Write the structure tokens for this entry.
Amino acid sequence: MGIMEKMRLDGKAIFVTGGARGIGMNYAKAVAEAGADVAIVDMDFAAAEQTAARLAAETGRTFIAIECDVTDPESVEAMMETFLAKFGKLDAAFCNAGICNNVPAEEMSYECWKKVIDVNLNGIFLTDQAAGRQMLRQGYGSIINTASMSAHIVNVPQPQCHYNASKAGVIQLTKSLAIEWATRGVRVNSISPGYIGTDLTLNSPTLIPLIEKWNEMAPLHRLGKPEELQAIAVYLAGDASPFTTGADFAIDGAFTCF
């Protein structure tokens, strides 16, 4: 099988949490264009339905929308039941849901800290666990977690210690699960995006003033484009990466090189 054939995802069934918009939506579009059928998993069910319908029309692949709160074990289990009832198997899982806000550490409430950790780290664990259980039963599968360059560096000037800590935890969780499941057919990797120009970022009153500063600091002097994460997503989801597990891929325009 040639490399281009290995990059195809025909016949594969994949879910993407936080898939209604932003980076998750771009992961979903990429794997669908490579031939996969996809579940858009999101707390915002209306947005998930809209994204699923639009991507189905654009790609010609099967899309479904599933509502899920990744911080709730029962909701995650129900999501998996719905997914398997539709597709019967799980080839790859993009555990991508996450949140961030900017609050100085000395002013941060414990509730604010807990919310970010709950979504960004506990939510990744719960969806990894649910996906892993199914993949272990099958004897194969690929889990891809969304970490961040914030796991490697401290972002400035915005204060976000809770986010940085949560994303560092995602990378160590990824490595730990990769080792536990290495001989049982389940691969676990993470993607660490840099500053990406999603619609949310480009239209956020909080972030717009920071973009000029980020671009000044960045080696490429620009934000990344969401579609620039798509190739690594397709690579990790399919048969082109059987020896790739326990790795973190920083797609950040060299931002973390210094």
In short: The longest helix spans residues 110-138. The chain is about 45% helix and 15% strand. The mean pLDDT is 97. The longest strand covers residues 186-193.
